[in-house]
Amino acid sequence: MTARPGKVAIFEQFAADGFTRMFGNPGTVEEGFLDILEGVPGFEYVLALQETVAIAMADGYARATAGPALVQLHTGVGLGNGIGMLYQAMRGHSPLVVIAGEAGVAYDAMDSQMATDLVAMAKPVTKWATRVTHPSSLLRTLRRAVKTAMTAPRGPVFVALPMDVLDAENTEPAIPSTIPSQAVVPVAAELDRAAEALSGAYHPLILLGDGVAVSGAQEELTRVAELLDAPVWGVDSSELNMDNTHPLWQGQLGHMFGTRSAGIVADADAVLIVGTYVFPEVFPSLHNPFRPDARIVHIDLDTYEIAKNHPVDVALAADPKHALAGLVERLTAAGRRPTARSSAVWRRPRPEQNAPMMELFASELAEQGGSDLVIFDEALTASPALTKYLPPRVVGNYFSTRGGSLGIGIPGAIGAKMARPDAEVIGFTGDGGSMYTIQALWTAAREGVNAKFVICNNHRYELLDLNIEQYWQERGIDRHEYPSGFDLGRPEIGFVELARAMGVDAMRVEKPSQVAGAVRRMLTATGPFLVDLVTK
Questions:
Q1: Closest by CA position to 47, among listed 27, 77, 64
Q2: Is the peptide bond before 356 cis (omega within 30 degrees of 0)?
Q3: C-alpha 210 chain-centroid distance
Q4: pLDDT tens track for 447-493
Q5: φ, ψ at 505 (rounded to 5°)
Q6: What is the DSSP letter of 487?
Q7: Cα distance between residue 260 and residue 149, in whole Å
Q8: pLDDT given for residue 463 in this prediction
Q9: Which of 120-129, 223-232, 345-354, 375-384 has the lowest mean pLDDT?
Q10: What tens digit of pLDDT does each residue of 391-405 get?
Q11: Would you say the C-alpha torsion 324, 328, 333, 339 has a positive or negative sign?
Q12: How much of the chain is in helix, strand and coil states, percent to nearest 5?
């Protein structure tokens, strides 16, 4: 291989792996390879005004493409800015390849300005973190990063790139990274055990997560649910894992308190867990919530999550799509047949006359926008109203926040729109969540990304209101005024003015009579557009 500087070779490697975009925020120790980037044909640098935004846009892009996304951060300070959103990507299994520059290996002993242990910083919020210290291992390390990010359980990885390593001559070949196939099926005897545990149940239950979507197993999961006549609940579920209008779909389990999950699973005599861990609440039950005699079957490619918190009877480290297909065959052979109620037809509800503003807006959006809208949902407390009228039904058309950190709604929608430029992408967020990453609007305007944004403005962190009510109840504390730190209404945030200041047209909606016109104006806008929807 002809020698060339490592800063040139990395773009050959990125091209070999199909990367055409890098989301990032520039810095001095990255300027060498960013200078090279300017001359790379067909390669785009998507500038974010803060590292959290860069990671969030890449997260949305990776989810919409179901492939890896490339992010550049600025050494330790930039990585520090992005830690919270990296945690979200890790919890949500987003395959991000994150790189950051360093002054150089030669300066390791100097404890110089901005020097820090980048790998130690990144390890808690990534699947794998490393530092390249020799020019001859630059490209093989990047290939390992791509492979690791894309191998189940998927997740973000981090590679520190010292300047002197990038300046040195490199003779490694740039070849595509190897992504191992994980389309593995359990041996027949194990599938027989799983079918036996489920087929005789009188009160079966299914708990699913995003491993179903990654596997493309939505159809097989639905067939199993119909054969068992089993209610299905989403657990750590942020994409379309089952048509949400199906009569067996029950909705999402709570993410905060384990008492909710415990109550739902308490009566099940057989439970099938697919593509998720149990249970992901902030305050999970410390006791096994399943019936002592319940038969538990857990299918996942992530062996760490199987039986992590509670014992199971049949543990299958397998691809959900193929394992579920095997269960369909066995349940059918055992005489199970779909029930009549499994084929019911869903009809969109009509909002009542005095319905809340969020319901009126969601209903009007469904009416005008149709079923092809792509929704990026960080509406949080407003999400039930949104999905009531726009339930997730089409694979790849719905993404919700995951991981617990705020700020994904606006930049996530931008990334999804860049991945799918022909789709109508609308990002929903709250007034609180939007202010973590509001500067992402500038990137949408700069890049001409025709995504749309809705801020569900209730003038407070309403989720905290709900959570502290639970806290009061559990501890016998009388209801009283919410903490003042939950209030976002003093002073009023001018979202329309903020958006316009960053080049994005916007309007405020305060009355029901404004809803239809606002939806029409948003959907017909030729550039990015924001609606400040006052819900309270």
A1: 27
A2: no
A3: 9
A4: 999 999 999 999 998 888 888 888 888 899 999 999 999 999 999 99
A5: -70, 150
A6: B
A7: 33
A8: 85
A9: 345-354
A10: 999 999 999 998 778
A11: positive
A12: 45, 20, 40
Q: What is the CATH number of domain 188-342?
A: 3.40.50.1220
What's this model's pTM, rounded to 2 decimal places?
Answer: 0.95
Q: What is the pLDDT of residues 82-111, one digit of tens each?
A: 999 999 999 999 999 999 999 999 888 888
- CATH architecture of the domain with residue range 357-534: 3-Layer(aba) Sandwich (3.40)
Exposed (0-12), middle (13-18) or buried (19+): which is 42, by Cβ within 10 Å?
exposed
> Could you read off the pLDDT of 405-458 as tens digits, one per residue?
899 999 999 999 999 999 999 999 999 999 999 999 999 999 999 999 999 999
User: Could you tell me the two tokens for 418?
Assistant: 């860049």
Topology, domain 4-170: Rossmann fold (3.40.50)
Give the CA dihedral 324, 325, 326, 331, nearest 10 degrees: 80
**Which distant-in-sequence residues (6+ apart) come within 8 Å of 211 by Cβ?**
152, 153, 274, 275, 276, 300, 301, 302, 320
236 contacts 276 by C-beta, under 8 angstroms: yes
Kindly report, as residue ranges, where domains of CATH 3.40.50.970 are found in the chain: 4-170, 357-534
Residue 298: what are its φ and ψ, rounded to 5°? -125, 120
SS3 510: coil
Answer whether 307's CB lies under 8 Å from 298's CB: yes
Whether the Cβ atoms of residue 97 and residue 73 lie closer than 8 Å to each other? no
Tokens of 153: 């359980």
Helical ranges in 229-280 per DSSP H: 258-265
Residue 74, token pair as written in the block: 């600025």
Report residue 533 as tokens: 């929807």
Euclidean distance between CA atoms 457 and 361, whole angstroms: 13
**By CB neighbour count within 10 A (0-12 exposed, 13-18 middle, 19+ buried), where does 483 fall?**
exposed
For 136, the 3-state DSSP assignment is helix
Give phi and psi for 99, each to the nearest 5: -120, 155
pLDDT digits (tens, 9 = 90+) for 39-57: 999 999 999 999 999 999 9
Looking at residue 127, the DSSP 8-state letter turns out to be: S
